[in-house]
Structure formats: structure tokens, C-alpha cells
Amino acid sequence: MLNGKILAGTILILLAIGISFVIGIPITLVLQKANLTGDGLARLLFLLVPAILLALTYYAISLFVSVNTNRSGYALVVAVVVWIFFTFVMPLISAFVASSILG
To answer: Pfam families under this entry (predicted)?
Structure first.
């Protein structure tokens, strides 16, 4: 059952990011009146890889929390707290540590 959740989550994340890419890029090109060269398209495709990895990482964390808790409400709260930590607190801590080390 866990493998099915992982597979379904991965497929949904790939579909969501892929569809938004396929719809968003042409709209952006038309609205911005920009030209997309082969080099620019390659850069955009390389940008997809970290986006997919980031989404899959957050999904894996939420699935881990969900599996290791007894109640779904508690799992939701823990997942949101973990998300807030990694999204807001961790960058602040890393910037503080970097400025302390580098001076």
C-alpha cells in the first residue's frame, strides 16, 4: 500500500509540474513577447529537475510523517510545522551561520 502511495504521489507531482510547464511557458512567451532559443529551452528543462526533486522531497517528508503518526490531524500539523521550518526558519539559520563564518 505504501508503494502505491509513493507511485501515485510521484505521478501526480510529475503531472502537475509538467502541465504547468507546458501551459505556463507559451503564455509567458506570448505575454512577454520573448523569443525562446534552444539554449533558453535547455535551461528551462534543467530547471524542471530541481523543481521536481524539491516537490518529491516535501512529499517524502509528509509521507514519512503520515506513516509514523496515529492520527491524520496530528500528521497534518507536524507536516505543516516541518514545512514552515524548512521554508522559513532553515534559510534564516543558514544565512546567519554563513555570515558568522565568512564575517
So the answer is: ABC2_membrane_2
Supply the range of the domain harboring residue 21. Answer: 1-51
C-alpha 9/C-alpha 52 separation (Å) is 12
pTM, entire model: 0.76
CA atoms within 13 A on the CB side of 79: 19
Q: Does residue 34 sit within a domain?
A: yes
Q: What is the model's pLDDT at position 40?
A: 87
Q: The C-alpha cell of 88 is what?
A: 522559513
Q: Is residue 14 part of a domain?
A: yes
Q: Is residue 35 one of the residues assigned to a domain?
A: yes
| Residue 62 forms part of a structural domain | no
Record the cell numbers describing residue 56, joined without a space: 518529491
